[in-house]
Automatic annotation (TrEMBL):
Membrane topology: Single-pass type I membrane protein
Family stated for the protein in its record: Belongs to the KISH family.
Keyword Iron appears in the UniProt entry: no
InterPro entries per the UniProt record, alphabetical: KISH_domain, Ksh1
Protein name: Protein kish
Function according to Swiss-Prot or TrEMBL: Involved in the early part of the secretory pathway.
Cellular component GO terms, alphabetical: Golgi membrane
Organism (species): Crepidotus variabilis
Transmembrane intervals: 54-71
Keywords (A to Z) from UniProt: Golgi apparatus, Membrane, Signal, Transmembrane, Transmembrane helix
Superkingdom of origin: Eukaryota
Subcellular location: Golgi apparatus membrane
Span of the signal peptide: 1-26
Length: 72
């Protein structure tokens, strides 16, 4: 089944994308920070969610997904 049709898989893909963008911004900030508009700006916006604003919702979602995958 595709990740688009399974909510849990879709949520996992989104969380991994957000965390990956944050990691890329920490390693190479010039790569992410120079693109702030358009489709490449999505990397910048995703990195800001976790990296600078420390969203408790993303942290809680990561923790919940980790627990569900451990006991699945």
């Amino acid at each position: 089944m595709s990740a688009l049709f399974n909510f849990q898989s879709l949520l996992l893909v989104i969380l991994l994308f957000i965390c990956t963008c944050t990691y890329v911004r920490a390693v190479a900030p010039s790569l992410v920070d120079r693109n702030k508009v358009g489709f490449p700006g999505l990397l910048f916006k995703a990195a800001r969610v976790v990296g600078e604003r420390l969203s408790p919702y993303v942290g809680l979602a990561c923790l919940t997904m980790a627990i569900t995958h451990l006991f699945k």
